[in-house]
């Protein structure tokens, strides 16, 4: 990660910590005023948000460290560990909410000062939604799994808060006390789904999952277009590591071609691929024509 990109990512991660603490404070006040179990569950999730934001800050900072002898490919995968942690924390938050909801089903109670409490919770949710939108947009530009995971986590919190606000409002208006824990339980189910999806995506990164098929098709097309003078490219492989995309393949050239000529072809292919994937790390192994497999990428 370049220094300017590192600075932007770190600033965003610090912003997430500040926003999460502010939102937690607002939700805690809302719960203290109303005594609603749904608002208590919402506040519990915000505690997880603070921990997840701190984890994202640590991951973004560590992942930007340059490559060294022990980590010759850099530290970008550190962001996936943060994303896995956030997914696990989301699931923990959902289970805490379900526990509180079950207790409220058994012993329902009417919320107090519902109007003020809901207004405060709505402000907290608006802050969360605005920051999640900003964080997701910037995280995609910086290709930061940690920031994107944090944004996904905040969106799940926004959904939770919306359900809680509706539930507490209906309880206050209708006096139907079981609506409070019911909606808390339903939103917990949505959070569980979000957490499992985030875990799936993060584990895929840790397991060197290949780029999407559409991206691979584009990569193959670029190689075919830019490899004029070569015969074919085969054994094309890809993997993601944080914001980096690692590509490697074998390029078959005529046996009489000079090293400089084959190197020029490689430079042309690399330039085109990096124009498409600016964080691509490319390794090309040049082979003579006798190594052709007739099942790779034919040169146009």
Task: Sum this structure up briefly.
With 300 residues, this protein is α+β, with helices and mostly antiparallel strands.
Question: Can you walk through the features of this model?
Answer:
- The protein has 300 residues and is α+β, with helices and mostly antiparallel strands.
- It folds into two domains: 3-206, Cation efflux protein transmembrane domain (Alpha-lytic protease prodomain-like, Up-down Bundle); 213-298, Cation efflux protein, cytoplasmic domain (Alpha-Beta Plaits, 2-Layer Sandwich).
- It has eight helices and four strands.
- Helix 8 (259-276) links the parallel strand 2 (244-253) and strand 3.
- The longest helix has 32 residues, at 3-34.
- It is elongated.
Give the helix/strand layout:
Elements lengths: L2 H32 L2 H27 L14 H29 L7 H29 L2 H30 L4 H28 L6 H14 L5 E10 L2 E10 L5 H18 L3 E9 L8 E2 L2
Parallel strand pairs: 2-3
Antiparallel strand pairs: 1-2, 1-4
Helix pairs in contact: 1-2, 1-4, 2-3, 2-5, 2-6, 3-5, 3-6, 4-5, 5-6, 7-8
């Amino acid at each position: 990660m370049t220094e300017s990109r590192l600075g932007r990512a770190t600033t965003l991660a610090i912003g997430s910590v500040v926003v999460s603490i502010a939102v937690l404070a607002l939700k805690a006040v809302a719960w203290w005023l109303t005594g609603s179990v749904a608002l208590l569950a919402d506040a519990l999730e915000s505690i997880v948000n603070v921990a997840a934001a701190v984890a994202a800050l640590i991951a973004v900072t560590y992942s930007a460290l340059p490559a060294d002898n022990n980590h010759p490919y850099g530290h970008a995968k550190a962001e996936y560990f943060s994303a896995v942690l956030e997914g696990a924390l989301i699931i923990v938050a959902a289970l805490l909410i379900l526990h509180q909801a079950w207790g409220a089903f058994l012993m329902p109670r009417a919320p107090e000062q519902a109007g003020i409490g809901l207004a405060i919770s709505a402000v907290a949710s608006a802050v969360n939604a605005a920051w999640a939108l900003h964080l997701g947009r910037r995280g995609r530009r910086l290709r930061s799994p940690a920031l994107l995971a944090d944004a996904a986590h905040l969106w799940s919190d926004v959904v939770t808060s919306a359900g809680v606000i509706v539930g507490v409002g209906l309880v206050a208006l209708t006096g139907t006390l079981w609506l409070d824990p019911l909606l808390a339980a339903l939103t917990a189910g949505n959070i569980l789904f979000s957490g499992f999806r985030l875990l799936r995506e993060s584990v895929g990164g840790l397991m060197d999952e290949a780029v999407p098929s559409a991206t691979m098709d584009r990569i193959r097309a670029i190689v075919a277009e830019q490899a004029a003078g070569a015969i074919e490219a085969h054994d094309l492989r890809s993997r993601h590591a944080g914001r980096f995309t690692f590509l490697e393949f074998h390029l078959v050239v005529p046996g009489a071609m000079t090293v400089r000529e084959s190197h020029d072809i490689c430079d042309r292919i690399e330039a085109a691929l990096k124009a498409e994937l600016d964080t691509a790390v490319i390794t090309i192994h040049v082979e003579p024509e006798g190594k052709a497999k007739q099942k790779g990428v034919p040169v146009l």
